[in-house]
Amino acid sequence: MKRIILTLLLLPWPLLCIQGCWDRTEINDLAFILTSAVDMEQDGRIRYTVMLPLPGQMGGASGGGGGTGGEKSYYIDSEIGETVRDAQAKLQARMSRRMFLAHRRTLLVGEEYARSRGIRNVFDSTPRSPESRMTTNLIITKGKAYELLQSSPRFERFPSEAIRELAKSRMVLNLNMKDTAVMMSSTGGDTMVLYMSIKESEKSEKTSREIMNTGYALFKGDKMVGIMEEQEAIGLSMLKRLNSESIVTVNVEEHVKMTTRINRADSHIRVHLINGKPHYDIGMDVRVRIVETIGFYDLSQTANIRKVENILSDKVTKAIEQTIRTLQKKEVDPVQFGNDLWRAYPKLWNDRYASEWPSLMKDAEFNVKVNSIMTDTGLIYENITKKGLGQ
């Protein structure tokens, strides 16, 4: 009997050690920021814009384009402050839910802000918050950053989703805030950031304002100084020694055009001194596949394959050389050529080049050699209708 009484007395004691959720945060107390935008006003103050989902409009598919089947499933709000956090605090003052940054995947910065103020301050406000992630994609926008949030992409419910998918597309370099911070803090190099703009859809009954990857924004220090687009952007992505896919079209013969996809580009950069000046040897192995040919061309012949490879090598070489000339003209070094020079000749770098790089990059010589390798011609060697046309 005494044992039973003792057991009953001891049973409640373990319950006192069990802690409850005294500081819980419910989902319906949070406002999830999908993406945010930073712009500069005419008076120099900062405009901070956020895109947030509306839980009441999230039930089921809406039929495309940010809820084009009815009420939009998101809303955009904005505020002005002396700093980003100041504007965010003003915005929070009129929200019934606490803004939550852990689900933000893209941070947009307007071109005017990037050119005049620079992006270094963005790397102060973001890492200070435990909710913000350095894996967030930083994107520079043509015009105001909040205008990109006002786009109407047809394939995604939220414009933020279209921005995120484009940022991690295989057609561009996937650069997050951590990558950008490493470039900004490295020795002998500058920064490049993905650049996006808005383009209206064409030949459609109902036009939409779509988001597109335009190229890369170039930075000197932390301020934007220029843009690289089209062929120059392809050359820059190859020089960065990071994998991305590119589409290149070449003229093989008078009536033969061929579109190829570059699946991989492995570059090797070596630097040595000639007459006291840095000389860079850039070797690149490019792996390509044929995606379309206009005109009859037999790719079952080894000689024809070699001809296409040589033409591709020549075009890629010219694109890379044009990219390097533009970098020398703008005096920026997102490829980190200065870092290669520092590693090879640290004393020479500290004594002569460190204080004036990348302006001294204009005196360097660059020798580019590209070797294209055709890895795939598709399921056919030539147009399947050739014999039917009596060719």
Automatic annotation (TrEMBL):
Locations listed in the record: Membrane
Domain of life: Bacteria
Membrane topology: Lipid-anchor
Domain (Spore germination protein N-terminal) ranges: 23-197
Domain Spore germination GerAC-like C-terminal: start-end pairs: 214-378
Primary site of residence: membrane
Coiled-coil regions listed: none
Record keywords: Germination, Lipoprotein, Membrane, Palmitate, Signal
Tagged with keyword Glycosyltransferase: no
Family: Belongs to the GerABKC lipoprotein family.
The protein's name: Spore germination protein B3
Taxonomic source organism: Paenibacillus allorhizosphaerae
Gene that encodes the chain: gerBC_8
